[in-house]
Amino acid sequence: MIIEDTITRLLKLGMDLGTKDAVKSALQLIDADTSVVDSIYVELKNRFNRKSFARVPYNKRALFLSHCLRHSEKCPAKLSDDGLMCEECGNCSICEIKQEAEKLGYTVYIVPGGSMVFKIIKRAAPDAVMGVACYFELEEAFEKLTTFSNLPYQGVQLSKDGCKDTEVDVDRVLEVLRRHEGS
User: Fold this and answer.
1) What is the side-by-side order of every strand in the sheet holding 107-111?
2) Model's pTM, two decimal places?
3) 65, 75, 91, 106: least buried by Cβ within 10 Å?
């Protein structure tokens, strides 16, 4: 609730919130807790893109899942030019997310990092993208997407990060996946 209240305050002030540094400066200006700058930045970017993302049909969207969500010791997936090729073994949350996304019509990629994301975006040319990753990867992707394209996007940050055996709130991911015009 603190994040929602802070975002509301910042938006009412009409401050520049286009970059993470701008958000941090705005938080300092209103004497708010700057330790939540990452969460606020990601949520602001999601809000700014929510409607345009929701207008894109599911079958024209790409979902990028961070490879760190996999169970590092049990994962049988192999790396290809399109990222990890999930075998849907059920050892991690990727399987459930991937199955629901594909059922909706998304193209799903499980990637080791941002450079592969942008190679795939350039090649596959989706009309909207969604990412599930740590704050650092989401922020980097948001900055590049904002600077280099008009592609609408949404991001869900990991609930446990650390580059290996990470976790995400699957219900939150599914909620964002299902966004469509009118929702």
Assistant:
1) 78-80, 83-85, 107-111, 61-66, 128-133, 153-157
2) 0.87
3) 91
